[in-house]
What we know:
It is a single chain. By secondary structure, this protein is of the alpha+beta class. Helices cover 34% and strands 19% of the residues. It has helices spanning 2-20, 39-51, 62-68, 88-100, 144-150, and strands spanning 24-25, 29-33, 58-61, 76-80, 85-86, 112-117, 122-126, 130-133. The strands form three sheets. A three-stranded antiparallel beta sheet has the order 2-4-3, sandwiched between helices.
Amino acid sequence: LKATNCLNGYHLLVDFCNRHEVDFELCGKLVVATSEEEKPLLKNLYERGQQNGLEGLKMLNKEQLSDYEPHVNGVEGFYVPQTGIIDYAVVSAKLANLLASDDVELAYDHKVVDIRVNTDIVEIITENKTIEASLMINCAGLYSDKIAKMSGDNPGVLIIPFRGEYYKLKEDKEH
């Protein structure tokens, strides 16, 4: 399910960015085994990527890895072309502008404490106020599972958070 959602989301996001002129870069990603012992795990990840619908995956030996990244230190790896970089603040701002133009009210900094779902209305009780709506879209990020449970859904998953950090290196330190 995660792989299916990830791949579908990838296509939807690329389409959204192209339609609304939001910059992004499909730079790809290297997945690397740094020892012989990691090679079976690498092969498993590669096969799962293929089974989940990733296209253009390329297995790479040690020499081929350096064609993609001269300073990588691995014994084997593979390239994933679908990985990219995007500024989600820009994506969020574009979404907010599009929603506002359709008279959608966005409520920021409202901690949700309860949700009541009735036949034709949803009551979202926050620390600030109660919001009534015919539709609630859960985009609570790392708290999505908790919000889903409040609304009476059991997503059957627990979100375990992690995040990436991106840095621009000085040219003389890029290696």
